[in-house]
Amino acid sequence: TAGALALALWLLWVLSAKPITVTVDGMTETVTTHRATVADLLLDLGITPGEQDRISPPLDSRLGRGEQVVIDRARPLRILADGRDVVIGSWGATPREVLTGAGIDIDTYDEVLLDGVATPLDALLPPRHVETSAPTYDRGFAWDAVRSEPLQLRLTRAIPLVVHEGGLPYTINTTAQTVGEALRQSEVILYLGDRV
């Protein structure tokens, strides 16, 4: 009968599904799938891998029964530099590593602000801040409820400022907003008869 055939096809469909263990940022769940590759599985799960995300096995790998798929997402960072505003994923541990990895050249006197605070280029970035959404009736996957807000890195380029003092010119490099601030930071003392 048609009902028995439909039941047999449904049973075949269920039994042919492959159990796969998926771990995203340390959160593990087991899913069943008929998909052939890791990329197809991630598409079904609603996971869009970033360029810097680490995925094992690779996206084009074929899936087998009982396979383990591990995804470690790169840390999101918002970079404001040279008139650009981009959000990237990075594994860099310091502002210098993040900016270099993003293809941004850094000069010795450039200044970096991390979330608005001046930070040395080789200082370690703070630990990743992760927020979890409140649970809902539509449970979804554990990793769907996790959000990581990007840190903001603002690069301010240093500019050369030529100072003529005592008949001898010399150059200071500064990120100061005014000439007065640049001279003060460079410890140049101005006297009443000096011209600026």
General description of the model:
It is a single chain. The chain is built from 4 helices and 13 strands. The protein has helices spanning 2-16, 38-45, 95-101, 179-185; strands at 18-24, 27-33, 54-56, 68-72, 75-81, 84-90, 111-114, 117-119, 130-132, 146-148, 151-156, 159-165, 168-174. Helix content is 19%, strand content 35%. It is rod-shaped. It starts with a helix and ends in an 11-residue tail after the last helix. By secondary structure, the chain is an alpha+beta fold. The strands form 4 sheets. It has a 5-stranded mixed beta sheet with strand order 6-5-11-7-8, covered by helices on one side. A 4-stranded mixed beta sheet has the order 2-1-4-3, with no helix packed on it.
